[in-house]
């Protein structure tokens, strides 16, 4: 079987085909445009059965992956750190697009269990909406801080609640307080307040969208105690497909809830992982805090660990890992349910078509 590696850039795609022993067979460079996609697919058809691998730069390869997947090709994703090691072991020195594409192909030929690309689904929508909401919240926070200093100058007696400049009642309170004040500071403060109000409305609308998608597509994840819609959306978007993880332990290493071994000899020790995906880790932490605060199974487990001699921080870490395992299982169930629904649709369509043809005969 021929293996094809692709090095993607904003303006061009470079493809290199290698045989089963890693020898270069052919190479092609096409523009990263619709015509280039057509030329690339025609070139791939000339090899018959091929394995296609792309460098994992999804901001550059989304359209490329979609064209390949719609044409019926399986697309593997190769992490850049794997390419670096393959380039160093190559007999051809230097760095170029063909060298990088050949490194991608050789990694795909050598490595098993590489991530597989798939067409965008609700998980990408959740990722995009969640990231957009995060940017809007950060922008609003900066405006709120600036507005507070201006309010301290204009109306120092005004009591503004902590984290309160996002509620309609506080908006009205500030509007009344600076309504009759003249000057540049007051005018800028009114502009800042208007921007904060508009941002808050947009943030609220995005939160409704996230909640609606999560409720429909990931009900099992949302059923995890302590898990809210925003935390679930962040986890789904950052996980990018739970089926790429072989076990709950691999998922825990990815999100930073698995401890790191630091021992030698008979003295077994571990330390806290400071790595992993911090957004997922934060969502799991908030779920753990919520469980511990509201009671139930999580609070019982937390109390049991504290009574066994663990500190409250250590007990919370153990609860966070426990929730990670629960989240992994819930994501697997939701993904399986979605896959079953997708596979069921063609059968229904074929059955309907067959009944129509039978009636017409």
- H-E order: EEEHEHEHHHHHHHHEEHHH
Query: Considering DSSP H and I runs of 4 or more, what fraction of the residues is helical?
Result: 55-70%
Q: What portion of the residues fall into strands of 2 or more residues?
A: 5-15%
| Number of helical segments with 4 or more residues | 13
Using only C-alpha atoms, the radius of gyration works out to 27 Å
Helix/strand-derived category reads alpha/beta
Low-confidence stretches: 345-361
Overall mean pLDDT stands at: 87
Distance between the termini: 45 Å
What is the count of β-strands? 7
* Number of structural domains: 3
What does the overall shape look like? Answer: globular
Biggest sheet: strands, sense, closure? Answer: 5 strands, mixed
Task: Order the strands across the largest sheet as they lie in space.
Answer: 3-2-1-4-5
Sum up the structure in keywords.
361 residues; alpha/beta; Nucleotidyltransferase, domain 5; two-stranded antiparallel ribbon; 13 helices; 62% helix; disordered C terminus
Report on the structure:
There is one protein chain. Helices cover 62% and strands 10% of the residues. It is of the alpha/beta class and 361 residues long. It folds into three domains: 2-110, Nucleotidyltransferase, domain 5, CATH 3.30.420.40; 122-217; 229-344, no CATH class. The strands form two sheets. It has a five-stranded mixed sheet with strand order 3-2-1-4-5. A two-stranded antiparallel ribbon has the order 6-7. A hairpin with an 8-residue loop joins strand 6 (260-261) and strand 7. Helix 5 (122-154) packs across helix 9 (229-239) and helix 9 packs antiparallel against helix 11. It is globular. Residues 4-156 form the Transposase IS110-like N-terminal domain.
């Amino acid at each position: 079987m021929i293996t094809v590696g692709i090095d993607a850039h904003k303006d061009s795609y470079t493809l290199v085909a290698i045989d089963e022993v890693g020898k270069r067979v052919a190479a092609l460079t096409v523009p990263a445009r619709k015509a280039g996609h057509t030329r690339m697919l025609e070139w791939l058809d000339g090899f018959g059965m091929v394995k296609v691998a792309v460098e994992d730069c999804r901001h550059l390869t989304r359209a490329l992956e979609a064209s390949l997947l719609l044409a019926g090709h399986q697309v593997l994703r190769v992490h850049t750190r794997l390419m670096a090691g393959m380039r160093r072991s190559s007999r051809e020195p230097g760095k170029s697009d063909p060298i990088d594409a050949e490194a991608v192909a050789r990694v795909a030929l050598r490595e098993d269990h590489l991530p597989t690309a798939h067409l965008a689904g609700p998980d990408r929508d959740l990722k995009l909406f969640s990231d957009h909401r995060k940017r809007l919240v950060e922008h609003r926070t900066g405006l709120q801080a600036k507005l507070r200093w201006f309010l301290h100058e204009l109306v120092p007696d005004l009591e503004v609640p902590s984290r309160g400049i996002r509620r309609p009642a506080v908006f009205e309170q500030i509007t009344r307080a600076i309504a009759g004040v003249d000057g540049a500071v007051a005018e800028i403060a009114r502009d800042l307040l208007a921007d904060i109000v508009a941002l808050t409305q947009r943030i609220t609308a995005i939160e409704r969208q996230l909640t609606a998608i999560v409720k429909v597509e990931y009900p099992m994840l949302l059923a995890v105690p302590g898990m809210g819609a925003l935390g679930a959306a962040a986890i789904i978007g950052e996980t990018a497909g739970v089926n790429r993880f072989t076990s709950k332990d691999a998922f825990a290493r990815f999100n930073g809830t698995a401890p790191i071994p630091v021992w030698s000899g008979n003295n077994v020790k571990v330390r806290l992982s400071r790595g992993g995906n911090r957004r997922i880790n934060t969502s799991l932490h908030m779920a753990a805090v919520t469980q511990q605060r509201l009671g139930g199974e999580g609070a019982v487990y937390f109390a049991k660990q504290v009574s066994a001699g663990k500190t409250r921080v250590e007990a919370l870490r153990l609860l966070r890992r426990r929730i990670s395992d629960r989240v992994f299982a819930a994501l697997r169930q939701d993904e399986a349910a979605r896959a079953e629904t997708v596979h069921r649709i063609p059968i229904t369509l074929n059955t309907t078509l067959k009944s129509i043809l039978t009636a017409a005969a």
